[in-house]
# Entry
Amino acid sequence: MSTAYVSGRVPARYERLVAKQARAARTSKSDLVARYVIEKSLETEFPGISFRDSLSGREAYLTGRRIAVWEVLAVYHEARSIERTAAHFGWPRILVKRALAYARAFPEEISRSREGEIDTAPVAG
# Structure
């Protein structure tokens, strides 16, 4: 994947916080900041989608729910409709639509997540 350089300045107290979190995550500040920028950009672009650590790494899930996007997609493939998928989870249809929109935008990431081969950051572009 090609990359692009993005820079920004933050107050020193936040830099110290990022440095502490990077040490805890056993990664570089640069990689952690890149992950934060990517994930926040995706959360803004796809309302209702957030990211969390899983046993395999980072994965997309529905905010406020315990279900990963790949799990919604798997149920949708079985149910073959948004309405039946929403009924399965007991959710409004909009949540299923949001998960499916993210899955359509990032099929490689969702495929890796489903197979348990999650990268440490979502695929962006």
